[in-house]
Amino acid sequence: MIGGMWRWLWTASVFGVFALVIAAALDGAPRQGEMPVIAAGNEPIKDSVELPPPGASVPSSTVLNLLVEGDAPNEAAGRARDGLDAGRAAETAREERVEELRAALAEAPSDATPVDFRIQLAAVRPGEEHDAFDDLRARYEAILADLSPRFQVFSSEQGVLVRVQAGPLAGEDEAAARCQRVEAAGGECFVVRAPG
């Protein structure tokens, strides 16, 4: 509010002085054919303006205000330099960490993604998958008792179906051995590899 008042006063004084100069010039303007005469006084013109306190006219976040409030310019520049150096150090550390992670990824074996082995026992319509797994677990209790159901929705020529699977199994050999036992008991089964 104070800043707005000062701006208004300054603008009004500028226009006022301008109007006085124009009026004086027109009042003493020569008539046609006369040469203008400009007379200067013996005393220089002095004008004084009272300035507002620094906090009222300059936002507190500016370097100018920091200096007005008593900071030495070298100290302010030193703080700014320290902040810049800290920012550069943080950026360098971040770039080094990114390079370390890239190097670690490059050295990692390509088969680092864990694989979950399962056995697939059936494909049923959506909504029937839980009942189907319960029936298969009851039929092959000794083979499936320690496994959990896994379901995958997929689209086929018959429409949307759900794969009924059991797992996880420790490896492909164990999954193949379970499938052989299911097939020996009269069921259908095959090994499935899926991301862990």
Q: How would you classify the quaternary structure? A: single chain
Mean pLDDT: 76
CATH class of the domain at 115-195: Alpha Beta
| DSSP, total strands | 4
At CATH level 3, the topology of the domain at 115-195 is Alpha-Beta Plaits
Strand order of the largest sheet: 2-3-1-4
Distance between the ends: 65 Å
Helix content estimate: 40-55%
Which descriptors apply to this entry?
single chain, 196 residues, alpha+beta, Alpha-Beta Plaits, four-stranded antiparallel sheet, 7 helices
Question: Your description of this structure?
Answer:
The chain has 196 residues and is an alpha+beta fold. Among the domains are: 55-110; 115-195, Sporulation related repeat (Alpha-Beta Plaits). It is 51% helix and 18% strand. The protein has seven helices and four strands; from the N terminus they run ααααβααββαβ. The chain has helices at residues 2-27, 54-57, 63-68, 73-107, 129-139, 141-144, 172-184; strands at 115-124, 148-156, 159-169, 190-195. The chain has a four-stranded antiparallel sheet, covered by helices on one side. The chain is elongated. The two termini are 65 Å apart.
At a glance:
With 196 residues, the protein is of the alpha+beta class.
What secondary-structure arrangement, pairings included, does this model have?
Layout: H1 2-27, H2 54-57, H3 63-68, H4 73-107, E1 115-124, H5 129-139, H6 141-144, E2 148-156, E3 159-169, H7 172-184, E4 190-195
Antiparallel strand pairs: 1-3, 1-4, 2-3
